[in-house]
Amino acid sequence: LNGIMATVAETSAASVPSPGQGQVQQNPLSRKLNKILENSLDDDKDTLEALEVLSGFLDKNTLQARRNLRSDLEKRSLTLNESFLQCISHLVEQVQGLQGEVGTMKVCCDDMQQRLTAAKTRTSDLLKETSELQVKNRQLEMKSKVVAAFLGRFELTPDELRLLDGGQSRNVGDGFFAAVKRVKQIHEDCKLLLRTSQQRAGLEIMESMAMHLEAAFEQLYHWSQNQCRMMNTDLPEMSGKLRQALQELKERPILFQYCVDEYSIARRMALVRCFIDALTREGSSGRPIELHSHDPVRYCGDMLGWLHQAIATENDHVSSLLGEQGDERAVAILGMVTEGACRPLHVRVEQVVVSTTDAVIAYQLVNHLRYYQGVFQGLLSPTAPLVQTITDLTDLQSKMFFSALNVHVAKTLEGLETPLPDLAPVSKINELLSLLQSILTSRDMTVLTSDNQERDLRRILSSCLDPLIQSCTECVSGFSRLDRAVYMINCLYLIQSTISLYEFTERQLELLESQIQTYLGAVIAEQTSHLLGTVGLSDFHGALKQGKPSEEHFKALEGCSEKLTALTLAPDQYQLSQCRLLTSSRLRDEAHRRAIVGFRDAYEAVYAAVSTEKGLATVVDILQYSPEQLEQLLS
Questions:
Q1: Does position 279 have pLDDT exceeding 70, yes or no?
Q2: What angle do CA 557, 563, 568 make, to 5 degrees?
């Protein structure tokens, strides 16, 4: 490459004009060389590569070699063309051979085409028949798929048939319930067939499914019945299969009711057995209940409490088994289950009721029975046997309570002693009121409505207070009017104080207050008469009320002035001794105040009569004080 570049340079130098030839036209080769030399070869890769290849032809960079460069290149080109010609000749021979083979293959293919054309002509009928058969085959395949889909939807599998018709001894499992569900679904799907032209098929399938369904329900009934009979243990296991079986049997109410009856009988036997064991045997719950039979209230309370807990447990069992809680069917089942406990409960409670003579304990038993009567009515129906038993026992205990109360009251008031001089209530009255207080304290306000509470309380108070007041009246029948009134006031006030602490006694308190005011009026009248007699105005006031007083009555007033003065100086000394025996300070003060008012009114009438008859000067001499002055001094 360096040699070539040098040759080019020499040639260019030889062709460059001399300075004397500045105006002579340049040689074309010079112009081309100048153009080549002016170009930059650094960026012309093609030229560089050509020069690189060209440099391989020059072994020596001599003048002779550079002059023979053209002939060398031509020889080199000829050699390459001869080599290319040989390769092309060989390729042509191969292509000609391939062309011969292709021609042979064309001849074979033409022969085969002719033969196929002839065969097609001969087998056209066969192809047509084959095409028809293929169309029919596709139709039959479609019909086969339709039939298979129809049978899959409207026909049971052999396994399902074996489960449904397995007999009463076969165990019921998930596969059985799935088969029953499948039968129901087929039965429902047949209703769609009845709306089409396939009504006969739909009716036949529905009839067949109905037979299978009845056989399944029969098998399900016997299995459920056996399972329900095994529910007579203390802690029955409520299996999911039995629960599902009873849900299915609800479509056959008679079979379902038979199973429910079997369950109720089994649970009733278990409940009675557990109840008897709780009464007589020591178990996980503690000592036997009958060990507390000496305590009637606890004995009955424990029995009723055990039944309450048992009913709650049975309610959970029924809810778990039937999936229902609080509806009529569950309540009816609970009523049947608890029916077995009625007789042992009735016998024992009745023994307690008959043997209880204490009125307070009897009333506590009434409250217990009433409470559980309301509780059981909330869990069971009002017509349930257990509720009826509790109601009967409550009525019996209520009768026995009032009978015991009447006997106790009559026995207490029998031979009631005569009051002491202090006119205070005798000890038997306090004893009877203490009994009444114990009864009223022990009553449960939550077991009765307001009307029933008031009616019950009225009957209790009537049983105790009416005989008591009557006996108090009879025992002081021989006393003076004042002593009788004071004694009755003390007794009535004691009764009033005792019952005023309890609710629903307003009516009785009003009646007692009315009687107290009646007797208090008698005491006030006696005290007023005593004051009038003390100052000497009694006769004159009596004559004044009957008509016009006589002259003798006026003469009797001459000594009243000194007595009035003594009365005004110490009015308490003129109070009757019986008034001081009133146990109520309120009633004592009221009696004193009202007696003073009555005395002042009588004095005012006497003062007015004397002033009218004798004149004002005379009345001042006889009666030293005016009514206003006397009232002020006495107050």
A1: yes
A2: 130
